Amino acid sequence: MEADRDEFLHAVSSLEYRVQSKTQRDNSVFPFGLCIVRFQSVKPIEIDSAVTELFRLAKAHHGDYDGWETQVIAQ
Q1: What is the rounded CA–CA span in Å between residue 56 and residue 44?
Q2: SS (HEC) of 4-70
Q3: How many CB atoms neighbour CB 56 within 10 A?
Q4: Sign of torsion over alpha carbons 71, 65, 59, 8
Q5: Crossing angle of helices 44-60 and 2-13, rounded to 10°
Q6: Nearest in space to 64 (alpha carbons), one of 8, 3, 11
Q7: Radius of gyration of the chain (CA)
Q8: DSSP state, residue 1
Q9: Is there a contact between 5 and 57 (Cβ–Cβ < 8 Å)?
Q10: Measured CA distances, 40 to 1, 34, 43 (Å)
Q11: Is 57 exposed, middle or buried (0-12, 13-18, 19+ CB in 10 A)?
């Protein structure tokens, strides 16, 4: 449901994620998509922690977390 996506978005906003895009696919098991982004370290332990947190939040809001992508920016 769209309300589940909105509640998930509210939960991850407090973790400093922001919306990159929203999608809607009517012929999908999960029709209300969301792509979120956050700048963070790419240390394996921090990535594992973020993935676990997003997976649990997605499940808690009746969704499915399908993974992450990264872009490494040297400072």
Answers
A1: 18
A2: HHHHHHHHHHCCCCEEEEEEECCCCCCCEEEEEECCCCCCHHHHHHHHHHHHHHHHHCCCCCCCCCC
A3: 11
A4: positive
A5: 140
A6: 8
A7: 13
A8: -
A9: no
A10: 29, 19, 9
A11: middle
For residue 45, what are the CA distances in angstroms to 2, 48, 49, 51? Answer: 32, 5, 6, 10
In the block, residue with structure tokens 């973790």: 15
Residue 52 Cα to chain centre, angstroms: 11
- Each of the 75 residues of the chain gets a pLDDT tens digit; together they read 889 999 999 999 999 999 999 989 888 888 899 999 998 888 999 999 999 999 999 999 999 998 877 777 777
For the entire predicted model, the pTM comes to 0.82
Tokens of 66: 């399908």
Q: Which residue has the tokens 């979120």?
A: 36
